[in-house]
Amino acid sequence: MSLFHLAAHHNHVELVKLGLEKGVVRYSCVEPYGTAFTAACHASAIGVMMVFLDDCNDTECSDLVNRRVGITGSALHYAAKGGRDRGVRLLLLLGAAVDARNDEGYTPLAMAVEGGHAEIVRVLCEEGADPRTITVHGLTSIDLAILAPKKSDVLRALVDSTAVAVDVLDAPNGTAYWPVHTAAAANKVHALGLLLQAGCSLHQSTPAGLTPAHYAAHGGAVDALLWLCNQGVVCCVPSADGSTPLHLAAERGHVQAVEWLLSQQGTDINAVSSSGHSALHLAALNGHLAVIEALLKAQPPADPKLATPHGETPLLLARSRGHQETEARLRGLGGAEPSDRGLSAVSISAECHLDGRGKEYVTPMWRMPKLEIKHDTVYEL
């Protein structure tokens, strides 16, 4: 950062004036603070902000306020990221676009949410900021608020804002899942409670029939499953293709979630999806030995001889993927014979495209997007 940027950021008005008189390039961009003006916005250095604004006519002022700078975005993005409300309020008075998006699709509201700045969230919501705008990572500001640390008040700021109606909080985003799904998948019980208090339904399902319980099971979110159950949510309802939460937990190898689901009344351990796969099939296919043990030790146990319409048994699926330990555990329990169409495990593997995207066996969850907050943090739904 240059001395000019530092002077602007620390509200040294006279130094900034001197720099401008000496012909310093005022729009030089240096990350992470952008130009000297956006550096002042980031720190809510009102005195320096006014120096730049007083030096502009109306057209230049509008351009200065709304110009996209660097990777962060407009001056309002920088101010929201900085977390000081005076700069945000001044920029809004000057006509800053409240829903401007940067290269990653983040609005000033999303920046404030990610930064944990609850007061800025309230200010922006009062000015009509849309919390449903989606980033390139498939996240809305509501999703970001849900995924924020528990100590953060940003979700409560959104929920409590009179400008954010319940039909906004209880609506799907562009990728067709609801905020309650995000909270369930990330095991955010506190967020689920806030959404419920706001009037959101815990029974929303996606077009594929996926409920919050499916998302919790897929994420191994046992706390969320328990909380949903205590709220009266049935955690064994199948999706449109017949996949139950148990299928998803088994597919992902979440043994604690599997054990919890097996303890619930109504869970059918041998339930099959529309493709004929049980939880044991999916655990065997993915080599999740601990899950297989839990399924085989359950009362009643999973049926190792159960075959799909294509003749796939758990043993054949394990063998087709080369899961030797899983194959050894299943050998002798049944299902070792060739399929009813005379196909070997290799033939089944080739026919069903067992590469993680085959249409014959996978649950609908692989079609869901990855929820990314930062480049080093991925919440996959």
Description:
- The chain is elongated and about 85 Å long.
- It is an all-alpha fold and 381 residues long.
- The chain has helices spanning 3-9, 13-21, 36-42, 46-54, 58-66, 75-82, 85-93, 108-115, 118-126, 141-146, 154-160, 166-169, 179-185, 189-197, 212-218, 222-230, 245-252, 255-262, 279-285, 289-297, 314-320, 324-330, 345-352; strands at residues 370-374, 377-380.
- Strand 1 (370-374) and strand 2 (377-380) form a beta hairpin.
- The chain is built from 23 helices and 2 strands.
* Average pLDDT: 87
**How much strand content do the residues show?**
under 5%
Radius of gyration: 27 Å
Tally of DSSP β-strands: 2
* SSE run: HHHHHHHHHHHHHHHHHHHHHHHEE
- Order of strands across the main sheet: 1-2
Low-confidence regions: 352-362, 364-381
The biggest sheet amounts to: 2 strands, antiparallel
Please state the oligomeric state of the protein chains shown.
single chain
Helical content stands at 40-55%
Tell me the structural class. mainly alpha
Summarize the structure.
With 381 residues, the chain is an all-alpha fold. Helices cover 47% and strands 2% of the residues.
Write the layout of secondary structure elements.
Elements: H1 3-9, H2 13-21, H3 36-42, H4 46-54, H5 58-66, H6 75-82, H7 85-93, H8 108-115, H9 118-126, H10 141-146, H11 154-160, H12 166-169, H13 179-185, H14 189-197, H15 212-218, H16 222-230, H17 245-252, H18 255-262, H19 279-285, H20 289-297, H21 314-320, H22 324-330, H23 345-352, E1 370-374, E2 377-380
Antiparallel strand pairs: 1-2
Helix pairs in contact: 1-3, 3-4, 3-6, 6-7, 6-8, 8-9, 9-11, 13-14, 13-15, 15-16, 15-17, 17-18, 17-19, 18-20, 19-20, 19-21, 21-22, 21-23
